[in-house]
Amino acid sequence: MGAARQLEIAFDDAPRWDAPSLEAALAHAAGKPLRLVLTDNRSVLLSFRREAGVLQLRLHQMFLHAPGAVVTALARNLRRRGRAAGGEVRRFMNVNLHRVRRSPRTMPPLVTAGRAYDLEAVYADINHVFFGDSLEVPITWGRGVGRARRGGLTFGSYDPVLALIRIHPVLDRAEVPRYFLESVVHHEMLHHHMGGVPDRAGRTVYHTRAFREAEARFPRHQDVLAWEKENLAFLLRASQALDRARKAERRSRKRQRA
Ligand SMILES: [Zn+2]
Description:
By secondary structure, the chain is of the alpha/beta class. It has two domains: 2-99, Zincin-like (2-Layer Sandwich); 119-252, Metalloproteases ("zincins"), catalytic domain (Zincin-like, 2-Layer Sandwich), CATH 3.30.2010.10. The chain is 46% helix and 15% strand. The chain contains eight helices and ten strands. It has helices at 2-11, 19-30, 68-79, 87-95, 119-131, 178-194, 209-216, 221-257, and strands at residues 34-39, 46-51, 54-60, 139-141, 148-149, 152-153, 156-159, 164-167, 197-198, 204-205. A three-stranded mixed β-sheet has the order 1-3-2, covered by helices on one side. A three-stranded mixed β-sheet has the order 4-8-7, with helices on one face. The chain is elongated and about 65 Å long. The N and C termini lie far apart (51 Å). The structure holds zinc ion (ZN). Zinc ion (ZN) binds at residues 187, 191, 206-207.
């Protein structure tokens, strides 16, 4: 699945449709007349309403790249009055988020070897046990910058544009049990796997109920929560120390250059 997605992005970047042919294909698949407006709106990728018996559908222009199966799925969702952005359609939107941004971000160098943990090995274990080796998502130790939040730390993040997982370097220490690091990697891999779900206002929601249920299937979920609660203060201090060390290193590099 991961490989197919990547190939689609890398090699098949020409649009499959123009606006009239996409409108015709959607109307045909939905079995009813509809009016299609293409947008380059950055937050609402899909919306629709009925007007005088005609479906008015607004789609981000990324849908010009939609495979036939996605068009069929979208038409089916519209016909059933279900969640228009469900299933296949949601996955397509998530994979194509890079088309929404104006300035493409670039993939940083990936660093997986750590002092205490090899992220690549942790990732491979989780991929095997929970995802049947099906995921293909780059992972790296982050730099630990800009991630501190009031009252907590963001241990990991998933960037849907780059499809990249970053793990906070504060977790790369022997005091952190492997299962805790695993749970963070698992959480971020779930983000890649499940994607976001547009809410009624068109905003993307990631920590849905389904997400929380999947997350709780991690076998030591309760241990993870308990360990975090007990060690959060320690981790905060450790991350502040990392921060100071990084700044000191930057200052000494500056002095050497001066
Ligand atoms: Zn999350």
